[in-house]
Design brief:
The protein is mostly helical. It has three helices and no strands. It is elongated.
């Protein structure tokens, strides 16, 4: 039997709109109005979204454990490209 290949894909902002969905979760919770244009660095605390690395890690972990995380949408055409 032929073994199936396994691949890893960096999904955030490549396959899915991670930051858009995160901000849709974060802004109402914190009373902020950040947009994806505010995300200029990989480390959110360097963009002024969080005050520290620890705060960013905690908030991202909470987001990934929330029902909102399941709302992340695939970027247009990404599914087709992956399937080809």
């Amino acid at each position: 039997m032929k073994e199936k290949r396994k691949i890893a894909i960096d999904i955030d902002e490549v396959v899915v709109e991670y930051m858009k969905t995160f901000l849709d979760y974060y802004n109402p919770k914190k009373g902020t109005s950040f947009t994806t244009s505010d995300i200029t660095r990989y480390h959110l605390w360097e963009c002024g979204i969080h005050n520290s690395k620890e705060e960013s890690i905690k908030e991202i972990e909470e987001f990934q454990g929330s029902k909102d995380f399941d709302l992340i949408e695939i970027i247009e055409d990404a599914k087709r490209v992956i399937q080809d």
